[in-house]
Amino acid sequence: MSTEADTRAFYVDPRLDTPGWKSLPARVYREFYFTDGRKQAGGQRGKRKFVDYLLAYNNKKIGIIEAKKETDHVTKGLEQAKAYAEALSVKFVYSTNGKEIYEFNMQTGRGEIIHTFPEPKDLYDRTFGEENDLRDRLLSVPFDRSAGYGPRYYQENAIDAALEAIAKGKQRILLTLATGTGKTYIAFQIVWKLYNAKWNRRGDDRRPRVLYLADRNILIGSQTMRDFNPLEEHYTKVDGAEIRKRGGVIPTNANIFFAIYQGIIGNTSKPYYLDYPKDFFDLVIVDECHRGSAKDESQWREVLNYFSEAVHLGLTATPKRKDNVDTYEYFGKPEYTYSLKEGINDGFLTPFKVKRISTTLDEYRYTSDDEVLAGEVEKEVYEKSDFNTNIHIRQREDYLVRIMLDNIDQKEKTIVFCANQNHALLVRDLIDKYKTSGDPNYCVRVTSDEGEIGDQNLRDFQDNEKTIPTILTTSQKLSTGVDARNVRNIVLMRPVNSMIEFKQIIGRGTRIYEGKDFFTIIDFYGNVKHFSDPEWDGDPEADIQIRDTKPEDKGDNTGLKRPRDPGTIDIVDEPLKEKLAIRLSDGKERKIQHMVETLYFDKEGNPVSAQQFLENLFGALPDFFKDEERLRMLWSNPATRARLLRELSLRGFDADKLKSMQKLIDAENSDIYDVLRYVAFAKETLTREFRAGHINSKFFGELSEDEEGFVRFVLNKYEQTGVDELSEQNLANLLHIKYGSSHDAVKRLRSVNNIRRRFLELQEKLYEVSK
Q: What pLDDT sits at residue 242?
């Protein structure tokens, strides 16, 4: 009986075993895997995507072949192949059963039966449809693989798209890729190819000169330099320190020049960049280009205007929205886009959930029993957006911090976004008040005011080998450009100004890290509304207004002011007007309450039930129990429970995965039984304490004093540790702890059979408990 492997071995391989496909620059990749598989719990992965054959020529992907068994219709695999071709940016798709070959053109949407696979050069020429010597020269340069790896498929798509645009003579190019997908690495590979192809705007016989612009020092830091390390001998920085070191002369003896906007403008009367000839640079790369560089009124735009003869390549992670429409008007339609939902689905980014928290003090009305500590009451009602900007109530912030600490694992790395620098200071102090850790550096503030100490704390936080600091409080500084892969919680203790900014902040948690199955957004300000985006594509970066840190400049958000400390820009702290400060009356403070609602989102950014989210992350539970009663019966007996757990483990739901599910639905204090009940039948989880405390009193009334003492001892161990205490293997251990020996236990509890009977009865009653 024929198989797909037979088709490949007997039909496809011989037809590709020709001089054209066997010699460079042609390449044939068999079983080409191009995704990692969606992340699942316990370090597991979903199915990876691959094509049977990937055809390439001159380092450019030009075709894919999907092979089906001989008895299948020739186009049976076409739809899947088309989907993969779209992802891989491949124009030609071939579906074959060995006897026939069907060619489909993704660009024209037409297909036809052909007799043999085309020769590589012919297929390459048909891919582009026109000759372009520069394009061919750029593509022919191999990717740099000195780090031991090459670009992922979407990175290669973005690189090729940018190079093809340059070859066509485009001067403004935009690439839009989600945070955590390697935009800096993409920029490096583009520069690598341009450098080695000796491309420049004039067509001279020289290497290009590239200006890499960012708006913060953190974006021209270790990560950027590491990505560009293969070109280390050919780059330099452009800032005041470097120019002063050179006796006031700008650096020119390099090919790649890194600068932040504020650094290349400088603090002198004449901006540094004006010392360069207007045609000095061939390429200007604008990192995080949504952050003001394209605004007509911005001084940063003046840098781009001055070097207008260069090609401008913009890198952003924000889809086009009203908040950043000027960026897209400047650069035009993206040459390539790769979104958060694609990154999550491919397994290159981490899924997330949201805890939306509301309190009874989300708005404030002044009453005479409250004490005014500063300022004046000017409004009848102060809303959420007023807190920590127009009004300050320390007791409210104290309460929010306690809620936050209760809703995170305090050993996990967490970033807390606050209203301003002073608020970040307060939140840090309150975390220090209530944290379980005794380390003095457990929580630190990272804002522009902290200077080098804050930068060092950030570097330590980013170091995945270090656990301290564990929590950072900030206002704006960490909303972009922070590559901290092990961040597990993003806490929003302020309103987020826009959907773009919201997506950007989410990007702080999306990076992949070993053992990180998902991350959590804790939202105190209803920012989850930003998910209600009819055009949602998940690209998490933002257009944040940058302002000088000087209070007197509070009305300026255009970027025209020269900052006090270039490269460490943060949100303006306090307005000149004294903020209203209130101390709540004792009775009002004690009445503050809150509600936590956990929300889940699929890879499309649509809200889904917890059951759907769990199934996406873990897979479907095996059908071992048809209803809740059957599950209860199996679980109530330690022997059948052990068999059920073994069967679940064999089907991929081992103890670690069940514990991960327990954590994901915030049920660490519940029984695994409640987790299964929740996932399978959407039943509310009960804590172990609740179960133990609500056993029918009639059961205890039937016990002797010694029997009740033993049963309550077992229940106490169960509450502390969990269902493992109730296994048959653990019974002897429980008796030894309680009575010192099995012999003494039998003397108190009459017989071994009686002990076992009460042990089993207890479990029946325990799992009968419900609300």
A: 80
| In the predicted structure, residue 612 carries a pLDDT above the cut 90 | no
CA distance linking residue 209 with residue 61, whole number of Å: 28
Residues 449 and 563 in one domain: yes
Q: Are residues 446 and 583 in the same domain?
A: yes
What pLDDT was estimated at residue 384? 85
H/E element, 488: strand 487-492
Q: Are residues 496 and 555 in the same domain?
A: yes
Residue 183 lies in a domain: yes
Residue 595 lies in a domain: no
* Nearest-10 Cα torsion for 722, 724, 726, 729: -160
Residue 630 inside a domain? The answer is yes
Q: Are residues 422 and 291 in the same domain?
A: no
Three-state SS annotation for 116-133: CCCCHHHHHHHHHCCCCH
Torsion angle (degrees, nearest 10) of CA 429, 430, 436, 439: 0
Same-domain status, 313 and 367: no
Q: Does 201 or 563 have the greater pLDDT score?
A: 201
Q: Which residues are registered as beta bridge partners of 229? A: none
State the Cα–Cα distance between residues 207 and 717, nearest whole angstrom. Answer: 72
CATH code: domain of residue 333: 3.40.50.300
Residue 299: pLDDT over 80? no
Look at 568 and 327; give whichever has higher pLDDT: 327
Q: What does residue 588 show for φ and ψ, rounded to 5 degrees?
A: -70, -40
Return the biggest CA–CA distance within the chain.
Answer: 99
pLDDT per residue as tens digits for the range 518-567: 788 888 888 876 665 544 343 332 322 222 223 333 333 323 333 333 33
Which stretches does DSSP call E strand in 126-282?
172-177, 210-214, 235-237, 256-260
Strand 519-523 and strand 352-359: the pairing is parallel
> Which residue reads 């420049």 in tokens?
200
- Verify that 366 and 497 share a domain, yes or no: yes
Per residue in 683-710, pLDDT (tens digit) is 888 999 998 888 888 888 888 888 888 8
Name the percent of the chain lying above pLDDT 90.
27
Same domain, 450 and 370: yes
Instruction: Give the CB-side neighbour count of residue 231, counting CA atoms within 13 A.
Output: 28
Inter-CA distances, 531 with 482, 491, 528, 604, Å: 22, 16, 6, 10
pTM for the whole structure: 0.72
Collapsing DSSP to helix, strand or coil, 172 comes out as: strand
**Domain range holding 261?**
143-338
